[in-house]
Specification:
Elements (H helix, E strand, L loop, with lengths): L9 E3 L18 E3 L4 H9 L29 H12 L5 E5 L6 H7 L7 E4 L7 H7 L6 H8 L5 E4 L3 E3 L6 H5 E4 L6 E4 L1 H4 L4 E4 L7 H13 L1 E6 L2 E6 L3 E6 L8 H4 L2 E6 L6 H16 L1 H6 L2 H17 L7 H13 L6 H16 L7 H12 L8 H5 L1 H22 L1
Parallel strand pairs: 3-12, 3-13, 6-9, 9-12
Antiparallel strand pairs: 1-2, 4-5, 7-8, 10-11
Helix pairs in contact: 13-14, 13-17, 14-15, 15-17
Length: 412
């Protein structure tokens, strides 16, 4: 084999000019990718590390094509809640409530088809340009400060993902732990740190151990978490979009968990004939050929993804008139809700709604469009009995919103 036979980007191991007879006593020379070090070469030869996974046969990996977000049928309220959370990632979690078969998990996983890219740090310590914008060069490591001054990038964009949390995952894998395989321990980041900027999905809250669920809810609410282990402490960003599903008719949701979700969307299987026929046709087409079915929505999904990026960029400029802030607080008080989280979630959802509507000021319409999502089931556990009266709860929210906002409008 001569150098001319070697594909571009590969190296020939052995003497390319040696006589062919030299190789008749053993195997022909191997072609391998360029190695970075002697250790890399030894791992290749001995089949260690990453090379162990490539030495065998089929690893069994599957290329998963999510159900297209826009192909969901009769899920408008839940889609609205998820879109608002994408426009405003700091808004808080989204709880999808409904019976089994309503499409909660399918919709949550379909978020992968519309998520804008995530800004990912190129630094081991996780430094980002936003750190410098807020705290100056002292807010990043010395290497990143040098890169910034030299005009070199500190981060890159990568596709956002929906990360489904396994209910059996150990807490150390969620938070992170020291890797003691080497003589000098290094911190191995947990799932929440790796999920920063992505979506974390909890499929059926009842399946998760309370200590894991409490940890995830707290970290998502704060946007960061700190891990203390013997001899070391580390803090990580965890600015995730938290989405969870629950069947309230079967599983009560304690108020302390419910309050962690800014928006609460109801999903029920539709009763209308045309909607159910369309659901059947969509599911059949997707299961027959997921890629072909997804391609039918590609252009619309691309346009939606671009609109979401634009709305995200507009969000910081969106303002809420003081009169509407006072009106929102008055609505919450009239409903008998004591926690300020209610009006905060409602007003921030209204800001995201205005940004999505290409406006920089919140109007009454934005508050009306987001009231049910932000205000239902506030101040109490979500029990099967409360779930059964959801229509009555929503009717009261609507009535109070119309009454208070109407009075404020007349006064202005």
């Amino acid at each position: 084999m001569s150098h001319d036979d070697v594909p571009e980007g590969w190296e020939l191991i052995g003497d390319a000019d040696a006589p062919r007879a030299h190789f008749s006593l053993g195997p022909k020379p191997d072609l391998i990718t360029s190695v970075r070090s002697l250790k890399d070469l030894m791992d290749r030869v001995l089949g260690r590390g990453d090379y162990e996974r490539t030495s065998g046969g089929d690893a069994g990996w599957a290329h998963v094509v999510p159900f297209p977000f826009l192909a969901m049928v009769a899920a408008r309220e839940a889609q609205t809640a998820l879109l608002l959370s994408v426009v405003h990632p700091g808004l808080g979690g989204v709880l999808l409530a409904g019976p089994s078969g309503a499409g909660k998990s399918t919709l949550a996983r379909s978020l992968a088809t519309i998520l804008p890219p995530v800004v990912r740090s190129l630094c081991y310590y996780g430094c980002l340009p936003e750190d410098i914008e807020r705290g100056g060069l002292e807010a990043v490591c010395e290497d990143c400060a040098r890169k910034y001054q030299a005009g070199e990038p500190l981060a890159t964009e990568s596709p956002a993902r929906v990360i489904e949390l396994d209910p059996t995952i150990p807490l150390d894998d969620v938070l992170g732990h020291p890797n003691t395989a080497n003589q000098t321990p290094r911190v191995r980041k947990g799932l929440l740190a790796h999920a920063d900027g992505h979506v974390v999905y909890l499929d059926d809250l009842a399946r998760y151990p309370p200590h894991v669920l409490e940890t995830v809810l707290e970290a998502a609410a704060m946007g960061y978490y700190t891990v203390h282990r013997q001899g070391w402490t580390a803090s990580y960003r965890s600015r995730v979009i938290l989405v969870a599903s629950v069947d309230p008719a079967q599983t009560p949701v304690p108020q302390r968990w419910l309050e962690r979700f800014a928006l609460r969307a109801v999903m029920r299987p539709p009763h209308e004939m045309e909607a159910r026929v369309q659901i059947y046709e969509h599911l059949r087409a997707w299961r027959d050929d997921p890629a072909a079915f997804a391609s039918l929505f590609r252009d619309d999904l691309d346009a939606l993804r671009a609109d979401l990026r634009t709305a995200r960029a507009r969000l910081p400029r969106v303002q809420v008139p003081e009169a509407l802030v006072r009106a929102a607080v008055r609505v919450v008080q009239t409903l008998g809700v004591t926690s300020p989280r209610a009006e905060h979630a409602w007003l921030e959802a209204a800001r995201a709604h205005a940004a999505a509507e290409n406006r920089e000021q919140v109007t009454r319409a934005d508050l009306e469009a987001t009231a049910r999502l932000a205000l239902r089931w506030r101040g109490a556990d979500l029990t099967p009995d409360l779930w059964a009266t959801t229509d009555d709860v929503d009717a009261r929210v609507d009535a109070v919103v119309r009454q208070v906002l109407g009075v404020e409008e007349e006064a202005s």
